[in-house]
Amino acid sequence: MIAVQPQLQASPGTAQPQSFARRFMARPAGVGAAVFLLLLVLACVAAALIAPDNPGTQDLTDVLSGPSAHHLLGTDTLGRDVLSRLLYGGQRSLLSVAEGLAVVLALGVPLGLAAGYRGGGPDRALSRGAEMVMAIPPIIIILVVLAVIPGSENAAMLVFGLLGAPSMLRVVRGATLKVREEPYVTAGRLCGLSPLQVVRRHVLPRVAGPIIVQASIFAAYALLFETGLAYLGLTASSNSPTWGGMVAEASTVIEQQEWLLIPSGALIAITILAFGLLGDAVRDAAAMQDASPAHRRRATVPRDAARHAAPACPPAAPTADEAALLSVRGLSVTGQGRAGQTLVVDSVGFDVFPGETVGLVGESGCGKTVTALAVLRLLPGSLAVTGGQAQWAGHDLLAMPDRAFDALRGSALAYVSQEPQSSLDPSFTVGSQLAEVIRRHDRVPRSAARARAADLLRQVELPDPRRTARAYPHELSGGMAQRAALALALAGRPELLIADEPTTALDVTVQAEMLALLRRLARETGLAVLLITHDWGVVADICDRTIVMYAGQVVERGGVQDLFDRPLHPYTLGLLRSHPSLACAGQPITALPGRVVPPGAWPTGCRFAPRCGFADDACRAGPILLTEHRAGRQARCVHTEQVLPDEVSTR
Amino acid sequence: MLSLIGRRLALSLPLLVIVPTVTFLLAALIPGDVARTILGTDATQAQYLQLRQSLGLNEPLLTRYFTWLGNALHGNLGTSLFWQQPVTSLLDSRVPVTLSLVIGATAVATAVGVVFGVVAALRAGVVGKIVDAIAMVGLAIPNFFLGLLLVTWFAVTLRAFPATGYVPFSQSPGDWLRSIVLPVITLAVPGIAVIAKQTRDAMLEVLDRPFIRTLRAAGVPGRSIIGKHALRNAAIPVVTVIGLIFIGSLSGTVLVETVFALPGLGGLVVQATSQHDLPLIQGVAVYFTVAVICVNLLVDLTYSWLDPRVRVS
Asked: Which of A326, A527, B50, B212 has the fewest Cβ atoms within 10 angstroms?
């Protein structure tokens, strides 16, 4: 009991009001709406005190006048002061909204809490009932009420509240379901609080946000509805003004005085808008609260980090290798976040030569995928290339015009992604997607495209190509979908295939088949492959050379065999040692300690230093350069000599 | 496909019973005497008793309900108290007006909303904010106020369209079109706002999916990515909203037909309310419910056409 108590104290329900209020205050539209509504309510309540005129006082010598010093908003058909009538009319409209809202809250909130917290039978019954009520067109029901009790606005609004309650019930139920399983609620239950106490203390504060949002939405609809009924004259009473009634009155004199329409109509619209803006602001403020503290911290770090990281890139990129198919130099990618810019990929350089398979290796979050997407010009909007080049047949892929690059898509560079199922359009058959790509590249009639689609599916070793062509992506297994995606990538007869973890999502047996297929294709067609992976088994299986990335930088490069035998960088060494199938007999498998430092938090010195057993002050002093150790072997480490002998002895 | 239609119908048909039942029970259970309300204060006791008799108010509630329901199942929705005509024939003659408006408004809202939404998805930032702002305002303006503003500008000042009245299509297609332009726009505005926002959100979500990258990298041109692949997948949530817009427009006709003095179901039901013509209101409830069921069915069929996964399951 005592142990649980602090946890209860830490319940977000008790900690949140202040911070929520602060976040809400940061939204000018929401604050403006709240202030407007507050002033409106005060003004209408105090109408008797502040209205310049009695709403019923007629002045037939001054009818339909526009705004003037005497009548700020003009006068109506009987010379009555429009501003005064609006203030008095607002009493009725706002009271109606309050009536409806009271019903919605009184019914929707407790029933929603009960349905969400209890679950089971009561939940099903309440949800089913709510669904049924929500399907009934409210206007018709209200009209029945008004036909039986003519002119009764109270009855109309109570029934409107009744019809609005199910929406509130659903919102509260959904929010409660989410909160119910959270630790502090469970703890409250376990330490003997009654359900009512748990709900009141721990659930209600957490679902308050959605309730306020739904209440504002309902208020907006209620006002729309109330003024509509008054406009139709179904609830208007002859002696007191209503907003809707004033619009109706103005509509009879549109030809003489257009102005009269504006004060009442605009006030209704602005008030509804204010309810809407209030709801939006509360929703946004509440949504931010769900973001974890870690999330928020990350959002604030990047600015300094970008400044720190900047000097790490060498100013001039080395020249491209002309023999290479793809020669990347000094590639930098920057993320644009709310809190500023973050360097994500830092001066990456590598070459892929015709026909070879190159592995791009590193843990998740090292920038491998971003590097690939940058070369393919497929970066999402939040990321942008901020430096470097990618030479392809004498042209810089990153600098060429969109149209020129589009011509290379699929025919020079192709791409296979990690998720086999979601990498095909679910709405079209495999064959139709293949045919579209084939027709784009080959400019052949439909029938020829279909034939070639079948050929491609055969080439990627899919059984029964014709049936596969007719299938939708969801009808394929993961392995089949990945083969189909590969067929799509090969349709333009590319020279370089960039494959991003093409086997990660597949079963182990299917992985082996997929790798065998890639190897066969590379050998038979001379296709060069840039293979992104974190799996050394895959690298050992099919790669000729390897590039190791860590924290946005290349940290080591070399031929696969050489790199396996003599890793130069402690990171490579650590990765190799932590791989079960590569570890040597009698040697313990050691997991690499710590985690990849996220972009924005990179240290000024060696970025691997915090996780490295060899690290000393020299590593932390400043940026480490990628240095050539011997021909074809580079590493970004000042202690390569210490790394080496250790590993040689183990092999 | 047939079984899908069957299943959907089985789910939505209860509505056809529930809505009239609710209106019937409401009319019966609300405190207040319909016969007294209809006659007003000047009527004699004999007139009052006779009206109660002709309304069947002396029968027990259940008897009245099942008589009404039985008649309704045979296509007889009773007789209008005010018009003294069969409800169905009164309503049938007005259906074309309301359908013209609602179908027109849904079509306009869909066309304009989807274009706005796609543009906003592709030009994030300022354009997205503008679409948000327009959506907010479009939803906040009460349709009767918007209708009157349009009348003021386009009918009174510019004389481009008639302010009120309806011309049947069979009489003059051109005049028919002119007579429904302003009401259709009035009804369509909130729909445009909702559809634009939904389309933008759906497009942004789809454009973020891996298959967009795969197809783009394989060489599918940008216009096919947007116009074919992204739009087709984004259409699924948008279709739901279009169905809701149709149903919302149906309710909207109650006000808009009154503003533009159009002889449709919406205007009629308002008159029926002031005339305490319960059979007529219940008749409109049945007609609206049938329309809602048809639209829901159409939405479901569209789903299965758009999404192959629905088709199979």
From this structure: B50
Buried b (16+ CB within 10 A) or exposed e, A273-304: bbbbbbbbbbbbbbeeeeeeeeeeebbebbee
Which helix (H) or strand (E) element contains residue A529? strand A528-533
Whether A360 shows a pLDDT value over 90: the answer reads yes
Name A588's Cβ contacts closer than 8 Å, sequence gap at least 6: none
Report the sign of the C-alpha dihedral through residues A284, A289, A293, A294, in that order.
Answer: negative
Distance (Å) from the alpha carbon of A479 to chain B's nearest alpha carbon: 16
B91, B141, B145, best to mutate vs chain A, most A CBs in 10 Å: B145
C-beta atoms surrounding A351 within 10 Å: 19
Q: How do residues A553-598 score in pLDDT, each as one tens digit?
A: 999 998 988 888 888 888 988 888 887 766 555 566 677 778 888 8
A414 secondary structure, DSSP code: E
State pLDDT tens for residues A51-65. Answer: 888 888 887 887 788
Q: Compute the count of residue pairs across chains A and B with CB atoms less than 8 Å apart.
A: 228
Chain B partners of A244 at a C-beta cutoff of 8 Å? 144
- The C-alpha atoms of residue A92 and residue A90 are separated, in whole angstroms, by 5
The minimal CB distance from B273 to the residues A234, A270, A423 is found for: A234
Chain A residues with beta carbon closer than 8 angstroms to that of B247: 137
Q: Does residue A290 surpass a pLDDT of 70?
A: no
Task: Report how far residue A522's alpha carbon sits from residue A497's, in angstroms, rounded to the nearest whole number.
Answer: 9
Tokens for A406, please give them. Answer: 């589009």
Q: How far apart are CA B154 and CA B165, in angstroms?
A: 15
Nearest to A158 by CA among A135, A134, A172, A141: A141
Nearest to A422 among B27, B209, B229 (CB): B209
Q: What pTM was estimated for this model as a whole?
A: 0.82
A621: closest CA of chain B, how far (Å): 41
- Measured CA to CA, the distance from residue A74 to residue A63 in angstroms comes to 9
Only one residue has tokens 């009808």, namely A475
Contacts of B129 in chain A (CB under 8 A): none
Q: Confidence class of residue A105 from pLDDT cuts 50, 70 and 90?
A: very high
Residue of A nearest to B283 (CA): A140
Residues of B in contact with A410 (CB under 8 A): 217-220
Q: What tokens were used for A185?
A: 């609620």
pLDDT score of B268: 94
Q: To 10 degrees, the CA torsion angle through B54, B60, B64, B66?
A: -160
Q: Give the best residue of A27, A132, A134, A139 to mutate against chain B (max B CB count within 10 A).
A: A139
User: Which of A141, A224, A270 is the closest to B23 by Cβ?
Assistant: A141
The answer to whether the Cβ–Cβ distance between A144 and B278 falls below 8 Å is yes
Cα(A421)–Cα(A485) distance, integer angstroms: 9
- What pLDDT digit, counting tens, does each position of A179-190 carry? 887 888 888 878
Q: Give pLDDT, residue A467.
A: 92
Tell me which residue in A254, A423, A441 faces B214 most closely, judged by beta carbons: A423
Extract long-range pairs of A540-547: CB within 8 Å, 24+ residues apart. Answer: A540/A564, A540/A582, A541/A515, A542/A357, A542/A515, A542/A518, A543/A357, A543/A358, A543/A359, A544/A356, A544/A357, A544/A358, A545/A356, A545/A358, A545/A359, A546/A358, A546/A359, A546/A360, A546/A361, A547/A350, A547/A358, A547/A359, A547/A360, A547/A361
B159 C-beta neighbours (distance < 10 Å), count? 9
Task: Report d(CA A179, CA A286) in Å as an integer.
Answer: 14
Neighbouring C-beta atoms of residue A634, cutoff 10 Å = 22
Which of B273, B285, B306 has the CB atom closest to A427's CB atom? B306
Place of tokens 């296979």: A416
Decide if B100 contacts B180 (C-beta within 8 A): yes
Q: What residues of chain B lie within 8 A of the CB of A136, using their CB?
A: 18-19, 22
> Does B215 sit within 8 Å of A437, measured CB to CB?
yes
